[in-house]
Fold this protein.
Amino acid sequence: MSRNHVIGKRGRLPWSIPEDFAYFLEAVRGDVCITGRKCYAELGSAIPGSGLHIVLSTQGITYPDAVVRPSLDAALQAARTHSSCDIANVWICGGTSVYRESFPIAEEFWATLVHADVDGDVYFPHNWQQHFPVEVSRRRSSDENYRYDFVIYRRR
């Protein structure tokens, strides 16, 4: 997420930070990943290495590499009953409305905070710090284009 809360631009991340993507893939490896329909479409497939990818959609769409459920509650139930995944590790991977819906039940918020204001058309919900006020971990990094922090927040 950028300083101005941007998380997307025309169906893509508004930056290319290879370390960020590698960090994300390592974190979610083998676990349950939940995304909205648009986020899944932008990815083009299930998140590589995830144990189970669940797409939230009420449009009757099916995907060859993901399970579709109509609500976050139904997705969490599918995660609980899926034999190859650990329910303790469910990742909400976007988009904006899925993040917002998960705030009341999520225990942690893992973020890459990009130290830049960028143009975009998709924003992370601005009220996230009300839900996750406690910073428990921060690692600073940078590449030739951006300074960024990998941060983990928790509820009180």
